[in-house]
Amino acid sequence: MLNRRRTLQTGLATLLSAAGAPRAFAQGKPRVKIRYNEVVHSMLYAPAYVAIAKGYFDARGLDVILATAQGGDKSVAVMLSNQADIGLIGPESAIYVHNSDSPVKIPIFCGLTSTDGFMLVGREKVDKFDWSMLKGKEILGFRPGSTPLLFLEAALRQNGLDPQTDVKLMNNVGIPARVGSWLAGQNQYAIFIEPDASQLELDGKGYFMASIGETVGLADYTTFMATDKYIRENKETLQNWTDAIAQAMTWTAQAPVAELVSTIGQFFPGVKPEVLAHAAERYRRLKIWKTSPVIEPAAMEKFEDILVQGHVLEPGKRVKFADLVVTEFFNKAK
Length: 334
What we know:
14 helices; 6-stranded mixed β-sheet; alpha/beta; D-Maltodextrin-Binding Protein, domain 2; globular; 334 residues
């Protein structure tokens, strides 16, 4: 897979800091600059935005510079070329790199989401959705080999549909163009992440059919990773990062929705609060956000099952949990 990944294109980079955040790190100790790259920009990553906005990173002496790659292939390129310190990417990226000839590997050190955050939407409202309704229909999917597409295919298979023959998956639309493609009338169904799914629904431009993550079940979907060299040389930094994420997960799970929306609204300029609230309530209800950064071996096994079933990972190239996931940071998380 790695040799088919496209050349990195410049992502949107923004320096984010929390005004007035508490300074809990030792006085005089140098602050640590973190070049942080997320695969796409989404409500799915709300706990990470909370950690920035609430000052949890800042309180631990971490200055976070956020960039959005717009695709797992681009995120991998950024990581391998040392243009980012920490990446938020699907676990498949770490698996592909582990099995590649690259001398640099990108192990996972912290979890963020418990399963897929995409919603299946349709153009017409139905009283009761049945997956058989998709047979023979065009579905706006995602980039080949990506986690959104692999989980969609897994959901189709679980409901008796062959992704290759029973539906027509349209996987050639770039991430920034997906909403525009749908609004232009292309395809009968599509998968959208939040807040796009809620925006379409509240605008009457799409109707919720099913949650891909709820259908497939728990399988760590988006994780934090760093190069093996960075992990060896920056253990204190990664522990601070993981502790901040754990704190943000707890706050995200317990805060009133209105307060959550107010906190992360700066990351979604132009999106109405009611749209963010709709998305947040759905993610909470479906338990899409993890409440602990711990990654369980069974969840990662299921993730690799999906890759094998999707024919992007040979059964003999499954990666052992111990070779894929560094557990020391989330096991010590405060």
